[in-house]
Records
---
Amino acid sequence: MLLEIKNLHVSVGGTEIIKGLNLAINAGEVHAIMGPNGSGKSTLAQTLAGRADFTVTGGAIIYKGENLLEMEADERARAGLFLGFQYPVEIPGVSNVYLLKAALNARRKASGQPEIDSVEFMRFVREKAALMELDQKFLARGVNEGFSGGEKKRNEIFQMAVLEPDFAVLDETDSGLDIDALKVVANGVNKQRDGKRSFLLITHYQRLLGYIQPDHVHVLAGGQIVRSGDKSLALELEEHGYDDILATAKA
Amino acid sequence: MASKQTDVKDLVDRKYRHGFITDIDADTVPPGLDESVIRLISGKKREPRFMLDWRLKAFEHWLTMREPNWAKLKLEPIDYQSISYYSAPKRPTDGPKSLDEVDPKLLETYDKLGIPLHERARLAGVAVDAVFDSVSVTTTFKEKLADAGVIFCSFSEAVLEHPELVERYLGTVVPQRDNYFAALNSAVFSDGSFVYVPKGVRCPMELSTYFRINAANTGQFERTLVIADEGSHVSYLEGCTAPQRDENQLHAAVVELIAEKDAEIKYSTVQNWYPGDEEGRGGIYNFVTKRGDCRGDRSKISWTQVEAGSAITWKYPSCVLRGNDSVGEFYSVAVTNNHQQADTGTKMVHIGKNTKSTIISKGISAGRAQNAYRGLVKIFPTADNSRNYTQCDSLLMGNQCGAHTFPYMEIKNPNAIVEHEATTSKISEDQLFYCLQRGLTEEDAVNMIVNGFCKEVFRELPMEFAVEAQNLMNVSLEGAVG
């Protein structure tokens, strides 16, 4: 098992948002978490990534056999956990490639590999940019500086491709994308499915799941997973809306 | 990171790498300042009469002046009678004829500072004048520069070898009476660098002066004069360090630049004087007057400064845009940590027609530091179609520091276009978290964000020094996460 979340409780600013969540993800699996606004989806994503102002008040998260909650955010990243942000920030003056090279080398160093040299690195990122259908000009631009919403999301998927994580959490990567951008993003994720890498897709809408076929779909409501199923659950949601599902779950 | 932000105070831990003292026999005059000290300094340098008279005139005027107090600085009173105004490493004869005669301890000092003076280890493509306390130790690549007609030597040497140039240009940009510290400098200045680039010559290499304060209780008062004759081009860089001491030391320099018709001067500074300790004890008072005169048409002067050291930095490298179509630029990064204070900026004085100036200032404050940008854009009635663009950005780290902006504008010509933009920001938790999530340590993340913030200025530095400046920033902000 790659990740196991047991009875997780998380508070933000004194309010409990996640209230006893359980989830298990095996290597190579794609899980989707769906849920209405305010159900705790983004809180879960940021908690997994180690955001310090989110307080875990109970439960456990085991990642690769280790206690994830004891690791700092940067240690988690170096251990192969990647978060595709819902709102990627701009870092003016720091080029995309500069950040990526530092990030990649931090990861390599942590796993005892030598640092990648600049020539090899540039070849590698160009390859990945082509794969993600990302214009080469984005490489030299400041991180997300002046990017459109869609460009920012594509940049997240591109960064994921370069960093080659073992476990990627994509937090509403599909929101705010037009259909073409959505296809590009989905295509990027699909190309990185290799039977070993695991994904947790957090989404509000079913439409992303038309392009990425998940192995498991979970419905998050009120800080708990109220239903789990296969990809047909997403279609059911699309048809009946959250209200029906939640009503059935409660009954 | 909320939990970490509260620990900024504990995390601030500056490491100053150049704080060592060179144990060397020095010829130091006793503390105190009167006419006899000035005669003594001038005598030691065997200066011609005009130079002594010039100094005495400055001193006479200084006695009538009062220390200015308008800057936003908290400053201990300076006792000008407790400072020694001249200190030079002892040497057997008149001065070393070659490096073999230079005290090995001095060579070792510069090696340790990363400025090797030996021919074999020299920085490629950079000529260095090494100034130690009150005197110049040596100047490298002199012959090669002489072949191109460029004069690059210590100021003392210029007074003896090229008195006509010194007499003609000295004090024509910063007059003796300009201000309190400039007057003091004019009276007691000891050494510094002199550059003359003749008509039409593009200086074949970067010129650089490395200033080192070593002796205790001394002041350093260097004087630099750079003259770019018609159609010439020169790029000059100065670096500065000093030992770690508990008392404050005064550094009051004057730099004058003169660009004749179609000439261009690029002047860069990487200032890393000892900043004082975490409690604000010790450190250099860096009170400097720097001014460039774009005397000829189409001339250009560009200042780039990275101010990382000093307990107090108080200076405004300025441009007088006298020639028509002349251009002035000022690119500055001032970083203050712990109890450091900086009140720095520029003056752009537009006199000629179609003159242009650009000001890019980046202030970074951490710890309990105070950082002020103070700038003047002055457009004379004669300066038709002149333009200025000013951008001042401040970055705050933690919540005990301050950033201040004082932009002054005096516009006397209706055709002028003057723009001013200013921002103040903090390194956001979101930016920090984003970098951490990509696997960077907190320290690396902060350095990356700060370097990104300074990029517009760093890219103006000569390539050899851009990396040094970046590393310097990382050291200066060590531990200052917030």
Note: The two ends of chain B are 8 Å apart (CA to CA).
---
Amino acid sequence: MSNEAKSAFVTGALTRRDAFKIGLAGAATIAMPSIVRAEDSSLHVASLFDLTGNLNIYGIQEMNVSRYAIEAINASGGVLGKKVVLHEYDTQSKIELYSRYAQEVGANDQITAVVGGFTGASREAARPVLSRNKKLLFFPTIDEGGECDKYCFMQGTDCVQQEGPLLDWAIKNGGKKIYVVAADYIYGHVANAWTKDLAEKKGATMVGTEFIPLDVSDFSATIRRIQAAKPEVIMSNLVGNNHVAFYRQFAAAGLNKSMQIVSPVFGLGNEEKVLSPAEGAGIVVAYSYFEGLDNPENKAFLEGFRKKYPEGGVVADTPAQVWNAWHQWKMAVEAAGSTEVGKVVAALEQAAPFKGPAGEVRLDPPSHRNIQNVHLARVTDKQSYEIIQRFDQVAPTREVVGAGACDLTGKDKSSHKMINPKF
Amino acid sequence: MTTSMPHDEPLTGTFSSSLAIRSMRVKGLILFPVLIALLVFAAQFASSTMALKLTLWISFAICALSLDFVWGKAGIFSFGQNAVFGLGGYAYAVVALNLFPTSQETISALLGAGLVGAVSSTLLGYFLFYSRLSDVSLSIVTLAVTLIIYTVLASTAGPEYHIGDALLGGFNGIPSLPGIAFPSIGSFGGEELSMHQLLTFAIVFAGLIYFLLHVLVHSRFGLKIEGLRSNELRMELLGYDVRKLKLTAFTIGGLIAGLGGGLFAAWGTFVNPSVFSLAQAATVVVWVMVGGRGSLLGAFVGVLLVQSAADAADLVVTEQTPLLVGLLLIGVVMLMPDGVVPTLTRWIMPARSRQRDFRIKLPVAKPGFANETPERRLSVTEIAKHFGGVHVLRGISAAFGEHPINAIIGPNGAGKSTFFNILTGRHRPDQGKVVLNGSDVSRMPTFLRCRRGLGIKMQVPCIFSDLTVRENMQLAAMISREAQDICDVLQRVGLSNRANEIAKTLSHGEQQWLEIALLLVQNPSVILLDEPGAGMGEEDKRRTIALIHSLSEQHTLIVVEHDMEFIRALSAPLLMLHQGIVFRSGAFEELVRDDAVIDAYLGRRSHAG
Amino acid sequence: MDAFVVILVSAVTAIATLILISTGLAVIFGLMRVINMAHGEFLMVGALTTTSLVLKLHFPWWLAMMVAPFVGAAIGGVMEILLISRIYQRDLVDTLLITFGISLIMFQLAVNIFGTTPPGIETPLGAMTVGSYSFPAYTLVLLVAALVMLSGLYLLFTRTKYGLLARATAQNPAMALALGVPAQRINFITFTLGCALASLGGAVLAPMISVSPSLGQAYVGQAFMTVVIAGPAFISGTLLSAFLLGGVSNGLSQGATTLWGVTGLFAMAIVILRFKPLGVSASWKRGL
């Protein structure tokens, strides 16, 4: 066994969170590199997820679905008749490990595709490195847009896909006066720019905007200002553990009875379980995937997942996108007839549709984002989601706020840089 | 005559050991590049994973080295070296993004990182050292600065936050940085280094920094820094501007940390604010603590041990890395508090650790003593000092110099200590003047007075306990314009055969004489002695009195004492303070018979000033 | 007018919060000169104890909050006996590092037991209305708790034998030992008390914030600032320090943006330290 494979095996740390439950299947998949390496008749891919540290609640579920997906793919014959080998990297919620493992993957000739990251920061630490080494990156989380990289494919919905439907619903059911609270980092700012843009187009007014640093948990000043502005709708783009306190303090001041909260990020980290039923009830969110979706693909997906991970917990949107990512990659490789990255990219850009658990997804080639179904759901008083509306095949935006558009199949094929939004 | 005096060390074998040190020095000079070459050679065989890991660790080690120097050598515990490291990283990012497209090199960015590190440390150091912060407050303030930088940088998310072409990016940081690239000279350079080339560069880069630091630490400046760490007060009393020394040391530390940060940014091609977090701040301290502060090599060892443990922890028991690192830390603090390298050095080579090698060359000492200089006078006029509402000194005037020895006595609460502090410069008088050899020194800080010929001996021996006797003397001699010959002075106080012993192994009495030797080598005009007989037995007291008499031949002495027998033996004019004024002055015999004096001492109320 | 009342309430909340999160640290630092880097984790212990007792064992919230300090005291006591008591004589840095090691361990154990996002508890007592504004009535509980904490400590340190001995040992350890003060026992009590106070602070805050193992990290920076600014009088100094830092920070949050509030707290701390390097109470005659 060469140094590379051994070290990849060794650093691809196993999560033992549900140690006894994960079972031999998982172990066998991971152990495979050592057996198969010698023949090299397998295809190698990698994952970069936070299995430990603050963000592990997201990472572990992504990891679970990732393994489940690869296993399912292998069980149905693999890709191009070959088994797929997954190299797992635990980035431990540390940004520098995203850099480091991206460099390792970049130097590894065998690995051609990566699914990874959760926050925008983690994506930015890895993407340029992977891109430079011509490795594919599929990023599963919702994000704000601005990515324009030939080797990067954004699985999650973008601002327009989420906020568009949310605002439509909010204006109809809540009112036209909107107050925005957003996390004070790039995502929050860009999302706000979109909110402004969309709100204007739909005839709503922004009565206030606030950006909250990530480590603040005292929202009394914010709540006072909200009460002074008297909005009907609160658009929340708050992120992280500390920001959950907003919903708590909001409810404690009794405001959840008079104002409707809508959010494109609430629920990614099971916030509905962290808050009490009374505090969370009524909040409306928008994602492509919810566990409660009623269609045959989702049923099969969940059945298989529960069998493999009986204690796995709720599957949120991001892990579901991991499933889509691996399958879309598989389809593209088979269409291209090889794993050579240039060919796979071209195949992906042919935009063949794939039926995932949330419905059909299809690539929008110029933006490298998926056209997908978006569902609105309301948090119930039992800390679960009830789906209230469905928007079919919502298109992503190619536009980057204030800075032109991303066109990866157009004339500027060499645009490998993120277009920085101006807001 | 210089400091190395082979003829004077018959029994301790110092001559041979100094030769041994010298040959070790020569060996070291050759050995070092060979070692680096070997490492570079070995590096070519490392796997990519290893190469990546090692380069990262080397950048960490440079950061640890900077704290090792600042804390282990200079005694400044800064909780914010990671902040300087991070600023270096950001500086690299900004410079590289702006210059690389045209210059196709990033060495300028790396140097820029070092510069930003140095400048930011100077600014921070200025605030820290010139504002009388206590040690504890200093460490917390450095932590606060780190957290502030974190908060500020994490909020630079908008497009308006940019420096030239580099968007700061807020919490997301700055991605897509160019790696290390040398400027193209002929066919060399012009493109970014590969992984293995980067490792080679890192080894050489770190090796060079280590080497230069090693040389610095063994130079005159290095000795001054050691003195600073060992006893800051004594440095001040010898005439050193300790704040400037601290600032210089801190700036050098900042330069090193900045360079490390630049390498870090180049390695990851990415920087973001998480390097300024509390966890990272503590991690740097952990590296130095584990490796051993005070040993430069400890920086590398510490990073190696802690980071391998963190990586390995995940294999032993997954997901429990913080727990295992925590246990490691506790283990090290409890069992090996000095850190790994010093502890191992002590076990393996116990004698070695006491051999020290400061290559100090002192200027030729001036022959003769202060006899030639007629001025040995100190006078005070109408000194008044109050603290809050308490008027401790209420108008004291006196002139010292006519008689070679002067004694200051007085009952408790008379104001002797405060008066002493006015003379030394620890307090400034609210009114009145202090004049030393014709210059008004009332507003001068202590160290400047010491440079002008004031020698101060404290009550508790104030010497450099963990330096050798010789090193103590070298520090005193280095700064003085009138430095006397060290051998001669040591002979005078009877310590010549202890020259290579660590000062704290001396007996109490010997330590007092060492302190006097420190003064003598600077040849002060006026010497202040605060209770020179304190804590001594009879024999030592007699010797001290004899020493004082012998000193008085060339210097003016002012002695504050309680011990009446001691004072009688001094045969000096007395100045008695009581309730903040000069109560009586005159010869010992007169005062001893004066009822008013006795009343004052016994606390009787009949003579209220 | 109503806005003014609400702003006042908000400012008071900020100040009370600082008092709650800092007092434990102030006691340990003021009396023992030990920097307890695990202080944040004790806040976390108190908060998690409270939420667990309420959610799993259905304790009423106020009862759960009264149990929390005992849990903190127990953990702190064990820590003190096993580790801290052996290193009092050593450098300041050694205790700092040991407590940092302990904080890592406590954090990881909490993650193992509770996971990274455990459920929290609602804010009890509903909302109070002032004109067209409303705010959680629970903020008054915060205020009361902070005042009770400080006054209770004042009484403890001035009216009890322990209090007198603790202050004596802090001022002159050698002399106290010479007089037969059982320094070991006193230090044990002081350290345990500090941990209990920290846990109580976390417990009282729990219904207002999001409780998770990383809670400690979020508050420890502010707690340190407050304590260092407070200076040697660890009760009245902490009060004034919380007042200054909390007041300025909240004022900026209200008047400008929350970001200004956060930066303002640290910046204010630095400014105060520039002029009063040993803390605001450094030149006070009062010892507490």
Note: The first strand of chain B starts at residue 162 and ends at 163.
---
Amino acid sequence: MQRAFTWTSDRMVPGARPRSFRLPGFGLTLGITLFWLSFIVLIPLSTVLARSWAGGWEHFLEAAVSPRALAAYRLSFGVALLAAAANCVFGLIIAWVLVRYDFPAKRLCGAVIDLPFALPTAVAGIALTALYADTGLLGRPLAKLGVPVAYTPLGVFIALLFIGLPFVVRTLEPVIAQLSRAQEEAALTLGASRFQTFWRVLLPTLAPALATGFALAFARGAGEYGSVIFIAGNMPFHSEIAPLLIVTRLEEYDYSGAAAIATVMLGVSFIMLFVLNLLQRWRAPRVA
Amino acid sequence: MGTRALKAPAGTRAALLLITFAYVGVMLLLPLGAILFEAFRQGIGLWWAAVTDPDARSAIRLTLIVAAISVPLNTVFGVAAAWAISKYSFPGKGLLVALIELPFSVSPVVSGLVFVMLFGANGWFGPWLEDHDIQIVFALPGLVLATVFVTFPYVARQLIPLMTVQGRGEEEAALTLGASGWRTFWRITLPNIRFGLLYGVLLCNARAMGEFGAVSVVSGHIRGETNTMPLHVEVLYNDYNFVAAFSVASLLALLAIVTLALKSALEWRYRAELEARR
């Protein structure tokens, strides 16, 4: 598609001596890119990996899979999975409503969806804590019902629910906008129920985008720090997330311990990066 | 008949709309309202005192300085990366794009940790830096490095798809007509990508000013010296000085609201130029 618009000089000016119009700047821009990427991202990240091995394999294992670290991973990754799943349900509904329905305040609604991207995480953290603490507007009635939220793992879930929503909505919106209504019409005309149409026609089409939104929300949630630490309570083995354990180790000057846990977290980041790339390939033919 | 069949029954529509409103209201608007309520609940006088306190002012200044250094750095990088990736084909391009987006899936705490490992007292370059009396961690350079790391992909990620769709036809035409490479960039490329660039810079800036986890690891929390606004909020909050914490937080909430408003305005006015729909 883009190739079709590419002009070559000899075609433009017939008879002119053929010059190769190589777009300049490749060396410069690729050089800047590789330098900056190495300097800011790759070299620093590799030092963490190196550091975590510096104390030897046994020390690494001791720090990386200590019972306290395992409890922290379980909380961070487990709650991130649950929150990403919940965000898929709500995100799908909200994205659908934003694309297909007309209603008052639609533009405002659409703009507010990105609030978790724009609001600093620490600010979100203290705001959620104020709301869900057992003296808070939402926390008090919930605590009376016997569901304390703040300073429990449920608080972590609420924070990750907040953080993850825009990833799902923003990934789904363009795909829903491109859906061909003919498919839905055909299914309905052929006698499918609305639920069947949703389950058999819409959901398979939306699945790659939904999976991408899920993966993005999970990756963000697993590493999330600012919005979680205020509401989480941070009790070891109970409500302590993995990033906080890294900070704790660092404050104890246990550098290799911090690096070991960071290495595990980085491993998951790389896996998520790989998964997201696979998902992109899955999506590509459908979008085009 | 088809279009009528497509319209969901009124009940379903109402239910979906209700869920949307309830979710947006409770999960998004209520926290925003809570910040403003807590900030002003004891009057505007206390709010003013909190945001003009010397430590708060120094935090505001530091936040602005950090953003003023890191956003331009990542903007130059983003334009360069997008130029290289969108205008040429070369092996390893997919990997390069993936690596550029890597900071998005790295925990902010890990993003800060890497610079402590490199430049901290026990880090690789720690002894050398100490010998030469250069302070990176627990000082401005560390804050900038951590912020550059977490905001690394913002501009590039916005520009790469935009410039890929735009192709290289217009640039080649300008070169054919005798323009130099730089002139082509300033006169052709930059005007074509300006709104996408602005959009990327806007998001990059919001994250740079609001970043918490990464800067918290490298800052050392020295009051009045290495505390940015989000870190100052944390310090005040942990001191049970809630009104002051929410007052400073309200400034950051204002930043978020302005960012969202500008972002929506850009999306609404220049949607075509942002996405470069064919």
Note: Chain B has a mean pLDDT of 90.
---
Amino acid sequence: MILKNKDVLGLEDLSAEEILGVLEIASRFRAVFDRPVRSVPIMRGRTVVNFFHEPSTRTRISFELAEKRLSADIVNFSTATSSFSKGETLRDTAENLAAMKIDMLIIRHSSAGAARYLAKVLKCSVINAGDGAHEHPTQGLLDIMTMRQRLGDLRGKKVTIIGDISHSRVARSNIWGLNKLGAEVTLCGPPTMVPGGLAKLGVNIEYDLKKAVADADVLNVLRIQLERHSSKSFPSNREYHRMYGITEEVVRTLKPEAFVMHPGPMNRDVEISSTVADGPRQVILDQVANGVAVRMALIYLLSGGDPGALSSAQE
Amino acid sequence: MNFSEKAVIMNASEMNRAIKRMAHEIIEANKGIDNLVLLGVQRRGVPLARMLGEAIKAVEGSEVPQGALDITFYRDDLSTLGPAPQVSSTEMPFDVNKKIIILVDDVLFTGRTVRAALDVIMDWGRPEAIRLAVLVDRGHRELPIRPDFVGKNVPTSQREIIKVKVKEFDDKAEVVVGEVEGE
């Protein structure tokens, strides 16, 4: 068995072996994308529900594509069009879904812990597609997969995460996963967005961008969540760009093989300048492609797809 | 699961002779090797396909393209959980359209692996024909599938297990029959 639990709620819960096992399967799925027929029949007759309680384009489409490429049956619903707007609770909605015999629930929710709560209530598998500022495990896995494609073993590799760490579930999933694989993580951003307490997670904190990126192998540039900053943590977008934006000048100071990642959607010329976002040092579209493969691997493994079945078939 | 060997049913030189004969049969049935490709089913079909390729080259003087097929994502028993994880890769270094594919596997049993392999190939394109070559046919088919080229027919009971060993994975080449103990 690669995954030990029925759910994937965060990288905090996964071991290094589980993470590497998922990525190994993901790389097999990635190879399927290059064929004339881009789907495999393994999940025929299984039902997956995508429950998005918060706006999402990339993650929702990525999950949906992953499910379609596994030939699963899909039901999508989002808050705006569901009985949520009539006041039904999360638990009631979920139990109604379960009564309709679904095999898996993918949930995106604005509250941290929503996925874990549903995983406890429901018998079916639950995958967390992002819960509040807690975790976004599939993003963490696809980031790690992208890093490993370029760097191989991540032990001793230096990853600098730049931006709004305190609001970022992407940062949290990256930190858990990268630490487990032995990478050295540095966080960088304005002190209002990078609370010193985060050092407890076993990371370095560096407020000076130049120092933070000097010997980095990877920069993971987070989106400034403009919509979450009611009381602004920085004076203006222009000032943020000048202090912490990844510009051509910053990229020129990097190690020659270092590369830039961004989980999207980008605020161009805020956290990353357009020339870098479109330049030769970024791997953003690799991240997107890997995202589908990683999600396929998780859905496949949680549905009981265990590659061990292959080698034991004859025995 | 404890596997106890009961008997060696093919030793290395018997395996070699069977493969040479199969190579001749393949060449004869296809009137040469034009358009022919060998596709081994992971894992033990792959070294067997390579051995067949060498035997064919010894007769015809030129290489037959070879690929490898992983059928994991096409199995019909998703919920069957197994122990040690293992997914191999599919390597298709040629266009399958209009090719005559010789699908190679070690043991033909229920036929379910072959069913899955046929589906994988169809998702890569439309070959002119697919033929099946197996080193051992042990019977007990559950699907209407039959081999075109067989190394050895071995009548077995359901309980018995046929193991094909190859140099690449097992350090020696032989075919053994055995049984699972303690079930």
Note: Chain B touches chain A at residues 1, 3, 42-43, 70-75, 77-90, 92, 106-107, 109, 113, 119, 123-125, 161-163, 180 (CB under 8 Å).
